[in-house]
Amino acid sequence: MAFVAIAIVSGTIFYSQYLSRKIAREERDKVLQWVEAGKLLVSDSTGISTQLVGLIIAGNTDVPIIETDEQDNIIGYVNLDSSKVAADPNYLRSRLEAFRSDNTPITWVNPNDSTQVNNYYYGSSLLLNEVQYYPLIQLLIVSLFIIVTILSLQIRNRSVQNQLWAGMAKETAHQLGTPVSSLEGWVEVLKDAPPDPQLIAEMGKDVERLKLISDRFSKIGSTPHLEKTDILVQIGNMIDYIRKRATGKVSFSLETHDLPAVYASVSPPLFDWVIENLLKNALDAMDGKGYIRVEVQQTKDLVVIEVKDSGKGIPRKDWRRIFSPGFTTKKRGWGLGLSLSKRIVEQFHKGKIYVRTSEHGHGTIFRIELPSTDL
Q: Cα separation of 76 and 69, whole Å?
């Protein structure tokens, strides 16, 4: 936007300079005609040219002129403010100096007396001044517009960053809430009964969950290490994890197209987070029943993962907005899960994530594309 504005102003400046030079030439010709007409009016005793000369003289209503003699004494002027001339004795002299620096004077020598020399100094008309200064005014306006735009973008970016940090804090609390609550429950159980192997195993799972959450958030702030990973194993484990937290009326399936393994270079904790976010969103889009199907395909260059659900669908206008920080359609959401998923897939894994299709009342299909490893 700024480059376009600068290009427009630059073009306007060049064109205005062309117009100002053209107007300046025309005004000089106009002054020259005015001078010649004035002298002809004085020297022509026949009166034949009086009407034409009068029109030429009367036609100059905008170019200011000061007439001087051979000693540069001011002997006349036109198109200058008479009130200023009367109020300030130095006004005409100051204008003369300004005209002298602006334009080369027109000199008239009396053909009957070569000692009589008159100089005609002239300034710029109001039109020429406006043409000359218009680009500067336009440049000032465009500069103010650019400054306001930059400030607005900075304010918006700060707002997005603040929103992101607030969302990160809330997401962290949300992620930690489940295992912490579970551990609190196990502590109460331990108070009333001796520990048994099954209880210890469940507590171990919650501890591992806390370590996983901590590992995920630590990797968001730095470049994660990618490793060759079997995508089918990762997705299968995450489906099992989400299935235990869903109602029995939601069915889960993994379609592998008979592939024994599908490899891609990923950060397992972050990749699991992406799949978890998509599966949780699919669950939230349902009324406690339906299906979630994950389909994995592999081509020469890509690993394609599609998460399909039978939920309520996403309006077309929101397909891109759902990946923006803070945007959510949930009553208890922070609008961060899909934003983080997009960052993980596109910035850390050089892939793509988008809504492939969605229809009201018939569900949504999210698609992930990752660079393939060892077909």
A: 10
- Look at residue 77 and give its three-state secondary structure: strand
For residue range 170-229, what is the model confidence (pLDDT) as tens digits?
Answer: 566 566 666 666 766 766 666 666 666 676 676 667 677 777 776 666 666 567 789 999
* Per CATH, domain 224-371 is 3.30.565.10: yes
Contacts by residues 324-329 (CB-CB < 8 Å, ≥ 24 positions apart):
325/160, 325/163, 325/164, 325/167, 326/160, 326/163, 326/164, 326/167
Residues of the chain with pLDDT under 70: 1-6, 9, 41-55, 57-59, 160-181, 183-184, 186-197, 199-200, 202-204, 206, 214-222, 326-335, 374-375
Residues of the chain with CATH 3.30.450: 2-130
End-to-end CA distance of the chain: 44
Which residue ranges does the chain devote to CATH 3.30.565.10? 224-371
Q: Which pair of tokens denotes residue 277?
A: 């976010």
Backbone angles phi, psi at 123, to 5 degrees: -110, -170
Q: Are 64 and 99 in contact (CB under 8 A)?
A: yes
Collapsing DSSP states into helix, strand and coil, what is residue 135?
Answer: helix
Give dist(CA 323, CA 372) in Å, integer: 24
Q: Which amino acid is at 124?
A: S
Alpha helices, DSSP H, located in the chain: 2-43, 50-59, 82-87, 91-102, 126-192, 197-220, 231-243, 268-284, 337-343
Question: Domain 2-130 adopts which CATH fold?
Answer: Beta-Lactamase (3.30.450)
Residue 193 confidence (pLDDT): 65
206-234 burial string, b = 16+ CB within 10 Å, else e? beebbebbeebbebeeeebebeebebbeb
79, burial (CB in 10 Å: exposed 0-12, middle 13-18, buried 19+): middle
Residues 6+ apart with CB under 8 A from 275: 234, 235, 238, 294, 305, 307
pLDDT on residue 293: 96
Identity (one letter) of the amino acid at 146?
A: I
Report the DSSP pairing between strands 363-371 and 227-230. Answer: unpaired
Using alpha carbons, select from 258, 289, 295, 257 the residue that is nearest to residue 275: 295
Inter-helix orientation angle 50-59/2-43, to 10°: 150
pLDDT on residue 194: 65
